[in-house]
Amino acid sequence: LMCTFRENALYYVTTPIFYVNAAPHIGHLYSALIADCLYRYKLMRGFRSKFSTGTDEHGLKIQQAADAAGKEPPVFCAEVSGKFQQLFQRCNISYTDYIRTTEGRHRHAVEYFWTVLLNKGFIYKGSYEGWYSTQDESFLTASQVEDSMDCEGTAIKISAESGHKVEWMKEDNYMFRLSAFRSLLRQWLEENPKVVQPQRFHRTVLQWLQDDLPDLSVSRQWSRLQWGIPVPGDSEQTVYVWLDALVNYLTVAGYPQGHSEWWSAAHHVVGKDILKFHAIYWPAFLLAAGLPLPQAIYVHSHWTVEGQKMSKSLGNVVDPVERSDRFTVDGIRYFLLRQGVPDSDCDYYDDKLMKLLNSELAGSLGGLLNRCTAPSLNPAQVYPSFCNTCFPREPAEGSTESKATQEDYKMLEAVSILPAVMERHFENLQVYKALEAIAGCVRQTNGFVQRHAPWKLDQRDPQDQRWLDTILHISLECLRIYGTLLQPVVPETAEKLLSRLGVGPEERSWEMLKFLARYHGRECPFEGRRLGPDSGVLFSRLDRPETDQG
Ligand code: ME8
């Protein structure tokens, strides 16, 4: 069906590639979910789309983690990378590309990229002396470092931003002329005020660029770091893991050959912890290589757990596989996307998740579907017809047949503009606002049904029956819109909902979102059609486990 794609409308979305030092947690899943949601949304809008994720497998941190696990790095990396892949498959993350930095195609891309930078004079031999955090694989200036104490009471230095330990390092390295790009980077950000979103992160980057931008060390001595890509032509040096990692976005686009098409449509989803790497280092590398800059960098904040930073040492890491078993895949998807706010950190706890899902998916949405398809109200199991006399276009003063109230018209208005509202929020990476808007509309539709209490109508009375059908028709139309719009967020639940309504797979596209055609005097393709089979409750209520382990 290539012809239905918009010509030249391409969309390429990426997640960070995740370090394989530990198993995935809900924070990693959250990044992948945002990207998945944007990807599915763009597909619905007819874009030809690519969605890449994967694992970052080189560097000192991974080398040390493999050592600690008593495994050879390639074996260790393959195991943990497999866990990410399994999690994403299980959670319906519909990536088109999965990249591992240990792949040959990636090594080739990095070598090529390096050689371009070298030939253009942006890489030179020098020496680095300063702070390094292995946990963050990051070089830090004196002002980014502060005093602290380790668990044994020894004085140490840590990164002010991440809290991770730093060490003094002095090595001969290859250096990248980052300092040469300060004003170009500023210009790029000023000319493209929406390139880093949300706004506050855009401002942060501009703030950073007020300070001097020192040149960046882009290699490590082989004697210190063996697990990585050797610098082309100098086997005494290994490519700095962040240069290696960032190039993954190009590798997936096909670099060094035939990448232009996809690369020109690149959108990066990243956590706030790696903003500097994506909004300063990466664009500087790209400028140096003479390549276009990404279309957008979407930044999100972090998940904490019951008020604390999630960490292996605190033992409070939330396992997304276990949670998706307990709360269903769509449950965890809905919760994270509905509650995750890009601007500030969000707190995870199971109770909050259960309350939200019980109230919105099981209660509000599931309840609405249940009511409107119940055999008692809809014995024929059809999409009932809409009656214009019962529900006229204009609120008819004094008409006895019209039962519609002001609130009903308000509800219709809210649902009609919902696709446009969703579009605006998605374009601004505010999936949670789109979901808030949908949840608000679902509530209004429930209010509508409650207000008119169709179960009190007399089905033997023709006038009552027409009004009953109209109430159901409107409610099913609302549900059809909600189901269609929820597809990128909760694909399985949306599938179930739309199938129950009898909406076919080819009728779930953005173009089908025309709400309540009959009200506008047009034909409704669904009116009079049989509903789909009843396959049980839309979303089961979640109960607290019998024995509380806490
Ligand atoms: O930084 N809440 O990998 P990483 C939300 N390999 N998101 C979180 C999170 C949390 N608590 N913790 C992690 C790296 N993330 C590099 C990236 S890209 C070229 C190289 C998410 O395994 C978030 O997206 O430490 C964050 O940026 C990313 O995982 C870091 O993953």
TrEMBL record:
Catalytic activity: tRNA(Met) + L-methionine + ATP = L-methionyl-tRNA(Met) + AMP + diphosphate
Protein EC: 6.1.1.10
GO terms classed as biological process: methionyl-tRNA aminoacylation
Domain Methionyl/Leucyl tRNA synthetase: 11-372
CDD domains, alphabetized: Anticodon_Ia_Met, MetRS_core
Matching Pfam families: Anticodon_3, tRNA-synt_1g
Record-level Gene Ontology MF annotations: ATP binding; methionine-tRNA ligase activity
Keywords: Aminoacyl-tRNA synthetase, ATP-binding, Ligase, Mitochondrion, Nucleotide-binding, Protein biosynthesis, Transit peptide
Gene3D superfamilies in UniProt: 2.170.220.10, HUPs, Isoleucyl-tRNA Synthetase, Domain 1
Compartment(s) of residence: Mitochondrion matrix
Ranges where the Methionyl-tRNA synthetase anticodon-binding domain occurs: 403-511
Amino acid composition bias (Basic and acidic residues), ranges on this chain: 541-550
An example Gene Ontology CC term for this record: mitochondrial matrix
Record NCBIfam families: metG (TIGR00398)
UniProt record similarity statement: Belongs to the class-I aminoacyl-tRNA synthetase family.
Name recorded for this polypeptide: Methionine--tRNA ligase, mitochondrial
Annotated source species: Conger conger
